[in-house]
Amino acid sequence: MATLNVNGKPVSVDAEPDMPLLWILRCDLALTGTKFGCGVGICGACTLHVDGKAELACQLTLSKLRPAMKITTIEGVQGREADAVRAAWLDVDVVQCGYCQSAQVMAACALLKATPKPTDADIDAALGNIVCRCGTYPRIRAAIHRAAGQAPQG
């Protein structure tokens, strides 16, 4: 048994040490907002926060996690950045198919926390590993600028 801090609550997990956090969240804790994409750390569909930083859940095994680490999923993300990103996502009508959106929102929230007034280059670097086949990247960028309180650059 291991104890993790997920969305501000301690949870007990009975899993093998090499089990990816992605599957612990989805299968053991029924937190399905974190999506499976590639499983090898390149698509970004499983982006969540660990201690406030964007991380890939498919690359974090139970053995790498500690009870003091604060794991936040799309179901638990809160705060000024999260509120601004959610509002901007709706205002700009970002979502098309929606599959990657939880990861996009998580990456955007982490970016705005670290860089309150990001440039287009900052946004591209922070969200660059996420594969969106719908191609909503221009709307994602516009929404992040809106959430940051700035007019879109470009």
Description:
The chain has 154 residues and is α+β, with helices and mostly antiparallel strands. The chain has 2 domains: 2-72, Beta-grasp domain (Ubiquitin-like (UB roll)), CATH 3.10.20; 80-147, [2Fe-2S]-binding domain (DNA polymerase, domain 1, Orthogonal Bundle). The chain contains 5 helices and 5 strands, in the order E-E-H-E-E-E-H-H-H-H. It has helices spanning 21-28, 80-92, 101-114, 120-127, 137-147, and strands spanning 2-6, 9-13, 47-50, 53-56, 70-72. It has a 5-stranded mixed β-sheet, sandwiched between helices. Strand 3 and strand 4 (53-56) form a beta hairpin. The chain is globular and about 45 Å long. The chain starts with a strand and ends in a 7-residue tail after the last helix.
Concise account of the structure shown:
Its EC number is 1.3.99.16. The protein is of the alpha+beta class and 154 residues long. The chain has 5 helices and 5 strands; from the N terminus they run ββαβββαααα.
- The total of helices stands at 5
Taking pLDDT < 50 over at least 5 consecutive residues as the criterion, the unreliable ranges are: none
CATH superfamily of the largest domain: Beta-grasp domain
- Give the helix/strand class: alpha+beta
Largest sheet: 5 strands, mixed
**SSE succession:** EEHEEEHHHH
The overall strand count is 5
Q: Rg from C-alpha positions?
A: 15 Å
CATH secondary-structure class of the largest domain: Alpha Beta
- Which percent range fits the helix content? 25-40%
Give the termini separation.
Answer: 51 Å
How would you write the strand order of the largest sheet? Answer: 2-1-5-3-4
CATH architecture classification of the largest domain? Roll
CATH topology of the largest domain: Ubiquitin-like (UB roll)
Q: What global shape is seen? A: globular
Average pLDDT level: 93
Total discrete domains: 2
How much strand content do the residues show? Answer: 5-15%
